């Protein structure tokens, strides 16, 4: 069965090690970066942006996320 990627959004969650591989597969299927969504919750500590533990590049996951599109994740400045 072929997924109609032009009308679909893919949500990726699970162990961080799998993100890179799943996202590459989704891109290979024709998904746009803006239609691939993932959570980065694993980086949060205090939840209010004070401790800095959740800082990824230019974003605080607890304040700016934790849900990001792959297009946004690529601009954060760190590899997931």
Q: Can you offer a commentary on this structure?
A:
By secondary structure, this protein is α+β, with helices and mostly antiparallel strands. It has one domain (about 5-75). Helix content is about 30%, strand content about 20%. It has helices at about 15-30, 60-65, 70-75; strands at about 10, 35-40, 55, 60, 65-70. A three-stranded mixed β-sheet has the order 1-2-5. The longest helix is centred in the N-terminal third of the chain and has 14 residues, at about 15-30. The protein is elongated, with a radius of gyration of 13 Å.
Number of domains: 1
Helix content: 25-40%
Largest sheet: 3 strands, mixed
The share of residues in extended strands comes to: 15-25%
Contiguous uncertain segments of 5+ residues: none
- Total strand count, please? 5
Number of helices: 3
Mean of residue pLDDT?
A: 87
* Class computed from helices, strands and strand pairing: alpha+beta
Please state the overall shape, judged from the principal axes of the Cα atoms: elongated
């Amino acid at each position: 069965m072929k997924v109609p990627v032009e009308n679909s959004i893919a949500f990726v969650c699970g162990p961080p090690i799998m993100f890179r591989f799943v996202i590459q597969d989704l891109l290979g299927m024709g998904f746009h970066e803006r239609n691939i969504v993932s959570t980065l919750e694993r980086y949060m500590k205090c939840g209010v942006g004070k401790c800095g533990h959740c800082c990824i590049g230019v974003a605080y996951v607890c304040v700016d996320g934790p849900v990001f599109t792959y297009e946004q994740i690529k601009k954060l400045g760190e590899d997931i």
